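> forwarded from #structure-qc
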């Protein structure tokens, strides 16, 4: 009976090992198809795992995008560069199109009324800061002006 249990355990371990290898193969092939590397996946993992939040510098160090001893500013810059490269790889536009300059005050007022103080965020933005944020994400390219 004990031999049978040992064989079953060995079979179980073999199946788990095979499943793990198959998951790794799928992860590698799908990552390659999407243009993702291991550090890309690790950033997503650490973001999900750290519910209290991480800085870009923290993520860059944890995922190996920046050296562990990099200054915060350099690590953060490396993370921003990584995000820009990922966006380009995945054809995510750098700026949001379709924003009309004349709509920004109303958009900011709605966002301010909805979010403040209801959403737990590390930095609350008032209406003027939200207006500036919309201008930045539009990249200075406003609908009907360009």
């Amino acid at each position: 009976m004990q031999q049978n249990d040992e064989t079953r355990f060995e079979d179980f371990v073999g199946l788990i090992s095979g499943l793990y290898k198959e998951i790794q193969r799928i992860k590698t092939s799908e990552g390659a198809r999407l243009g993702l590397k291991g550090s890309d996946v690790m950033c997503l993992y650490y973001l999900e795992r750290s519910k209290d939040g991480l800085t870009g510098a923290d993520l860059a160090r944890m995922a190996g995008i920046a050296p562990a001893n990099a200054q915060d500013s350099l690590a953060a810059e490396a993370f921003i560069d990584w995000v820009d490269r990922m966006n380009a790889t995945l054809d995510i536009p750098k700026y949001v199109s379709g924003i009309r300059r004349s709509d920004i005050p109303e958009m900011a007022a709605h966002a301010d009324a909805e979010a403040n103080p209801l959403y737990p965020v590390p930095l609350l933005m008032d209406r003027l800061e939200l207006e500036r944020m919309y201008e930045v994400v539009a990249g200075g390219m406003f609908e009907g002006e360009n």
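QC bot note: The radius of gyration is 23 Å. The first helix runs from residue 2 to 34.
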